[in-house]
Specification:
The complex is a heterodimer of chains A (285) and B (219). With 285 residues, chain A is an alpha+beta fold. Chain A has 6 helices and 17 strands. The mean pLDDT of chain A is 91. In chain B, strands 2-1-3-4 form a 4-stranded mixed beta sheet, covered by helices on one side. Classes of the chains: A alpha+beta (285), B alpha+beta (219). The complex binds fe (ii) ion. The site of fe (ii) ion has 5 residues of chain A, from loops.
């Protein structure tokens, strides 16, 4: 166990989708290289254990959360998950052979849309990422705003290409969300959040929660669309070398790491997050 | 209109999508929440297919399950040229049936390893599945190598691909997702590349269009 700093370790992490747990219990999984067993008893009580010891456990947003340390703060608050006019569903849990930090960075990157999600989230020759704003909030979150991109099929409800506005939000090192223009309802935004479970420094399970405005949407199309898009990313993610995210400022090339990625890497450095990363050279860690 | 009960990430459903595209059959798609919803095990779906498996089609009032069975039906019904499933050629029909059964074995191994690695199916023996897949890939690679020696492009003799090629392609091409490398099977890789160049070829997540050069030529 390399990870002793509290920012990561003393925090809640998703280890199972409740929907899978009701189909199959117990579920054996791994968090920070430690074996975790997730069990649902006859009364519906969920228990997480590591090597025979009970772990703090909560269920929220349809997921099971646990911590190997002592959580210093609660699970992230997501108001969108409580809005009645949205479908709130998990998008499926997928194992990915790369650092969870890489998954976050890929999620923040609009530049890959026309190439990896061609015909869906982007289209050549519309490959340019226009300038956008990045701020660090008082809650110590990263916000990227005013991100605009032309998308042929922005959502299952899209009936043609539209100019989509995105807001990206990094809550915690392994928790990242986006808000994007809903193609049907003026002024509404759909919401996707990734809860990334660090399995090892070079592997993770990506859990997602989708909060989409119901109007015009078929619930079953939500998962289909999320999985279609995510499966396009997966081989790209798994082919990135090295699998750990380099945090050395000199490792940043202006083409691959754009503005929000640079802020994300710096933010990880500032919080001494080294799990799944290659620390900057000269770092005492 | 023909209706396909489909899951986007399923290689067996992809076989049917390929066939429908090659034959240009108008159809509708009903996406089934296979994962994580397990909708294929729901009472409603079990009435359609008591095996609880995808794909299933409905066509002209008939319900048909099993990827290989559906391929045979589609070819017999919609391929007026009789190219994909040559109805009047006993030798090739026998060979095609042989490779359709082989394709089922690929599903039972390579696909299981992929479900284990990608979709967290922790209750299966992924090591045994990988070993099994390698045995099958060795057999198919050797077969394709000898095919190349007599200038045979496809799994079965003839100028055109057949159902044998469609049935074997998806889980061979998705094998890396289950930790099964194709690096030791050059003839298999060349065949994959040829397959991607069949007119009407469509992709699925994890499978890309052929590059400008041969995939196999890089190794
Ligand atoms: Fe992507």
């Amino acid at each position: 166990m390399q990870c002793t700093h509290s920012f990561l370790f003393d925090d809640w992490h998703v280890v199972a989708d409740m929907e899978l747990l009701t189909q199959q219990t117990p579920i054996a999984t791994t968090l920070f290289e430690s074996p975790v067993t997730v069990q649902c008893d006859d009364n519906g009580t969920v228990i997480c254990e590591c090597k025979g010891s009970a772990l703090p456990t909560q269920t929220r947003y349809g997921f099971v959360w646990t911590s190997l340390g002592e959580p210093a703060r609660d699970i992230v608050h997501i108001p969108e998950a409580y809005e009645d006019d949205r479908y709130v569903v998990s998008g499926g849990s997928f194992f990915v052979r790369t650092s969870g930090l890489r998954v976050v960075e890929n999620f923040l990157d609009m530049g890959h849309f026309p190439f990896v999600h061609s015909g869906w989230l982007g289209d050549e020759p519309h490959t340019e990422v226009k300038p956008y704003e990045v701020t660090l909030t008082e809650e110590n979150e990263i916000l990227a705003t005013e991100c605009y991109f032309h998308q042929p099929v922005a959502s299952p409800t899209a009936t043609g290409g539209i100019e989509v506005e995105y807001t990206y939000r990094v809550y915690r090192p392994f928790t990242v969300a986006l808000y994007k223009t809903n193609p049907v309802c003026d002024g509404r935004m759909d919401y996707i959040v990734l809860f990334i479970q660090p399995v090892s420094p070079e592997t993770c399970v990506v859990h997602s929660l989708l909060c989409y405005v119901k109007e015009g949407m078929k619930r079953s199309d939500l998962r289909w669309f999320m999985q279609l898009i995510f499966s396009q990313d997966k081989p790209i993610l798994e082919n990135q070398i090295p699998r750990r995210l380099p945090l050395d400022p000199r490792a940043e090339t202006p083409i691959r790491a754009d503005k929000v990625a640079i802020v994300y890497r710096r933010w990880l450095r500032d919080h001494n997050v080294s799990y799944g990363a290659i620390p900057a050279q000269g770092d005492p860690r | 209109m023909l209706k396909l009960y489909d899951y986007e990430l399923s290689g067996n459903c992809y076989k049917i999508r390929l066939m429908l595209s090659f034959l240009d059959v108008v159809h509708s798609i009903e996406s089934v929440d296979f994962y994580p919803g397990a909708q294929h095990k729901s009472p409603a779906f079990l009435r359609l297919n008591p095996m609880g498996q995808l794909p299933v089609i409905e066509d002209a009032g008939m319900v048909l399950r099993d990827a290989q069975a559906i391929l045979i039906y589609l070819a017999a019904r919609y391929d007026s040229q009789g190219v994909w499933f040559p109805r009047d050629d006993p030798v090739r029909l026998g060979q095609i049936a042989q490779w359709l059964a082989f394709a089922d074995s690929i599903t039972a191994t390579a696909s299981v390893a992929r479900l284990h690695d990608g979709l967290l199916y922790s209750h299966v023996d992924s090591e045994a599945a990988r070993l099994g897949a390698h045995k099958l890939f060795r057999i198919l690679d050797e077969h394709l190598y000898f095919c190349e020696q007599v200038e045979q492009t496809w799994i079965c003799p003839g100028d055109q691909p057949t159902l044998a090629d469609i049935a074997c392609f998806p889980y061979v091409m998705l094998s890396e997702e289950g930790g099964i490398s194709r690096i030791d099977y050059p003839a298999l890789r060349r065949w994959c590349d040829r397959f991607k160049r069949i007119p009407g070829f469509v992709v699925m997540p994890g499978i890309f269009h052929a590059g400008p050069g041969l995939e196999a030529s890089t190794v």
